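User: Structure please.
Assistant: Input sequence and predicted structure:
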Amino acid sequence: MAAERGARRLLSTPSFWLYCLLLLGRRAPGAAAARSGSAPQSPGASIRTFTPFYFLVEPVDTLSVRGSSVILNCSAYSEPSPKIEWKKDGTFLNLVSDDRRQLLPDGSLFISNVVHSKHNKPDEGYYQCVATVESLGTIISRTAKLIVAGLPRFTSQPEPSSVYAGNNAILNCEVNADLVPFVRWEQNRQPLLLDDRVIKLPSGMLVISNATEGDGGLYRCVVESGGPPKYSDEVELKVLPDPEVISDLVFLKQPSPLVRVIGQDVVLPCVASGLPTPTIKWMKNEEALDTESSERLVLLAGGSLEISDVTEDDAGTYFCIADNGNETIEAQAELTVQAQPEFLKQPTNIYAHESMDIVFECEVTGKPTPTVKWVKNGDMVIPSDYFKIVKEHNLQVLGLVKSDEGFYQCIAENDVGNAQAGAQLIILEHDVAIPTLPPTSLTSATTDHLAPATTGPLPSAPRDVVASLVSTRFIKLTWRTPASDPHGDNLTYSVFYTKEGIARERVENTSHPGEMQVTIQNLMPATVYIFRVMAQNKHGSGESSAPLRVETQPEVQLPGPAPNLRAYAASPTSITVTWETPVSGNGEIQNYKLYYMEKGTDKEQDVDVSSHSYTINGLKKYTEYSFRVVAYNKHGPGVSTPDVAVRTLSDVPSAAPQNLSLEVRNSKSIMIHWQPPAPATQNGQITGYKIRYRKASRKSDVTETLVSGTQLSQLIEGLDRGTEYNFRVAALTINGTGPATDWLSAETFESDLDETRVPEVPSSLHVRPLVTSIVVSWTPPENQNIVVRGYAIGYGIGSPHAQTIKVDYKQRYYTIENLDPSSHYVITLKAFNNVGEGIPLYESAVTRPHTVPDPTPMMPPVGVQASILSHDTIRITWADNSLPKHQKITDSRYYTVRWKTNIPANTKYKNANATTLSYLVTGLKPNTLYEFSVMVTKGRRSSTWSMTAHGTTFELVPTSPPKDVTVVSKEGKPKTIIVNWQPPSEANGKITGYIIYYSTDVNAEIHDWVIEPVVGNRLTHQIQELTLDTPYYFKIQARNSKGMGPMSEAVQFRTPKGSNSPHGSPTSPLDSNMLLVIIVSVGVITIVVVVIIAVFCTRRTTSHQKKKRAACKSVNGSHKYKGNSKDVKPPDLWIHHERLELKPIDKSPDPNPIMTDTPIPRNSQDITPVDNSMDSNIHQRRNSYRGHESEDSMSTLAGRRGMRPKMMMPFDSQPPQPVISAHPIHSLDNPHHHFHSSSLASPARSHLYHPGSPWPIGTSMSLSDRANSTESVRNTPSTDTMPASSSQTCCTDHQDPEGATSSSYLASSQEEDSGQSLPTAHVRPSHPLKSFAVPAIPPPGPPTYDPALPSTPLLSQQALNHHIHSVKTASIGTLGRSRPPMPVVVPSAPEVQETTRMLEDSESSYEPDELTKEMAHLEGLMKDLNAITTA
């Protein structure tokens, strides 16, 4: 029989038929070559054939007992017959001198008298049969395991128990697993006969079902394993009579997880006890198992389930459900089915030449997944540079040598078993062509290019072989054609290469004829290789080129990928990942980085690991993750491993099913509907749902029902009429039951609905026609007591009987599809039940016509422009190319304008429609960039949006005050405070400056507050020389190019306590009364002198002076610059001294004036009379500050209270500290200082007058003092270009003898920013009587100044208009701060000619009516003076 099987297998192998083909080829070489595709051989050449060599029988796993005999079968086929040897645990057995083990003639191994003890187990182990044929090779069989049953040991013994008659009982007897087949039971010392009612489970447990009196007695289990039997404890089982009372339902034995191999039998134990006696049902994955009709499923005694001939489909979760009518309990267990390795693709025999690369293919399956190893001639193949495992299981051999011939076997192994399959490799001579074999056995690099050989010249060696490109892992070779064939179009080339010092050579062939370059891949860095090239023509291979030695480039020694990366779920929330050290570590591995990522996301996380395994916790349940590992050495990260995916274990659901609802069907049934738990809370595959329900009156009587995992509804029948029931549903996975829903109640009907007659007509029917469909909706009949099983919808063109559709009774609408457009349909609706159809309800409808959309799209508007009109308005204009040339709209089209601020984060548009080609967009924000686009709509067609246009609205005065105003004292300087703030939230433009107001009285009028201007957009400012221990109140207003914003709320701050420094305080020996008399006297004298001069000048008006003024106007170009002649010198010395101390602002070449430094007057003699002209809008702004009180009506009493008209103060000046307070005193003096009223673009020029006579030595100011007390002089461009003759005639300027000093201050003032306008500002109030103070005589010596005290520019004030002139006397206003004394400088008397000219100008400026008004003010001043002196 063995020979017959061998012959039959020989006939079925491809090698046999190939051998026959070769024999035929010897008879007809040409025909054989044509059929096989191989070259005819030379007379001396022959092809060796593959030799059939395989196992007929292989050993299998065997269980034996001590002292018995065992045969391990093995038989191999070959010609000649093979030599058979045996290995045990990988070592050859010496059977010659072994008395107990001998080799049988067929190759089987016979072991007699098996030896086995606790410390000596020579026969137990793994056996392997080895077959060898000399000069051919060796093959090895699969591995067989011999197990010798050990000495009997009871892990659990039977215990005494009792059972009620008719119930179930179990008796334990657990021994070591290899002795289970040798267990039997005895009752009353007699062997127990097993039947359908009394069975022994595979574990050895005895199960007695439906116990009777005869089952009572003494029981013991016996183990007979070849030696003397071993008995367990003997226990008594008592059978009790049925008590006829209910007892709890419990499991005596629950199923446990089992693992079985395909083809084995399995028993899932399940035994329950209780009264009434329970019945057992089984379910698999929530599907009920039919044990009655199935041949493979058997329900054993007590309820255990037996499955014979297990298949892979039997794997799953099994539920044992015990029910005795009063109670239901369940238990579950997982059955895992494994499979031995099987070959899907076995290795095939291969012919090859030396230096070629080959691949043995091997594809296996099994469960668990098998591991594969390769054996050559019985020896393990160790992976190396030339033997590699590719594509998981295939063996690749690179650069074949003659010694690689032999038999190669693929051995697959898993936990269940192992299997082997082999193939032969024959290496032919180079002059022998490879026969045609399946192409999968050769790699693309080794395709044979040998053509049928003919006689003729062979090519010479290729010339000039060079390495044109050398890298770390590849080398590119190029060469020239051989000298024997200069063209070389039909030549192919083979490149042979090997590592230096290695005999194994590899080959790489060119891809097509004529190609003279090859790139050799997969080389090792910093390694020397030897290359040679051979050319082939149709006659064969030619000469080889001289060897070429090339060394690859070195590379950074980074680690390779970590091998054997595996991941397995350790729990529902953790996964353990393991790996091994990289083969090419390139140095010491410092650590590993483990990357992992949840499937479906792109966020990869990583963790540093120092070992070869790591457990990641805190993962999501039943979620798939991918893992990869990167090894690190001192050079950095290496090559990453491929990703490995694994899913965390499942768990019970963490949430209840959703949307539980109840539907009462009739008086005895209720339909339950629900939805699965949220996917994130299912924690596994939902295998079923558990429904529990009970009567609302009986809380403990609960009924359970199990349904499958795909079922989302269940009809509960057999309920009582008119009874309220509670229901809840819980989801199940293989791990158990999740939380249940809340109880939901419903009440069955008292009586069922009437179905003895047809339903009534539906209460309403509505239709809504579309183009090819009609939507039908309805309401049920009004009489709800008649059963409605459904509705019948009939429809057709002109008749409702063409088509009929029936829908469920719960449905309330339906869409009739596939109708014709513009057709009249008649529709009928009828309710029906089992009796028949009710009365129909009719309706008709006409489907809509089919409209073809206009294929031409609308063109978007073009030329969109944005014209800025104001701070909140922009006009948008555009053109429409789809309109005629005259752009006249004659159809119903309209345009949609959309706009938004040009901020990337802002994507919200506003829209408006227009019927013209423009639109006025209002309500915009000031100083904001907007983008606009337009689209046109005509009927149902719309264009795309046009290209965008942009526009920025104009600025507007700030509409909100500065924010977050804070005041803090400066450390180390108690008199200095620092004010901080934030810009206003609604600046409405670029902030050009701020004004800080502060006062000690929060209720004072705003013009009585001291001001501090701040340049530009600074957000902090210092104020010095404040009074200690004094509360101050601060307000801030912001300004942009459009004006001033609102003031902030007042912020209070009290300066720190301390002693006022006497430094700088004017010392006077006079008491307060004497000081008051002096102030009043000086004031009266000043007023009298001014009045006399005014009267005198008024009467001197002549026509000659008028002509002179007219000439001056013509020279200056405009009346706005009237009075630009040299400054008029007043005749009074005291007034003249003031003019020397306070110089007016001259015209700046810049559009806006720049502040310059001004000396701070120390006493009343320092006061300078100033007069400014103001136009109407400045007048209005001034009145708004003054409460509409005119300057002419201001009383001297108001001046004593510290009230002053406001001053014009540029923001781009240096930060001022002390400020001059001005009080109006009417005078006849008219210096004619004019300002442009609105933009201040042309401030009037004024010139500082210096008398021609030298200063007295004892009273004049030093040059440095003059420098500190002088404003820089600036001339307008028009003045600079004025003709000399005209200047000399009417507008002669007196040059400043201290021009160097003025020039220096001009330079310093030009450094400040001059881009801002001049705001109106108030100045600080001074002491109420300080305006009339008599200056004290300064002590001898030079004047002293506080070098740390900054100076404040004095700003000229504006009068009401060009025709009303007033002189304002300035006094110190520093809110109590002390000042150093100022030396009094008394100038010499003016020249007569200059005085006359000044008086003439004054006379020409004042009219009698104005003089009357001045006198009236003088009278009021005198009255106030009298009141003060009286007091």
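The mean pLDDT is 74.
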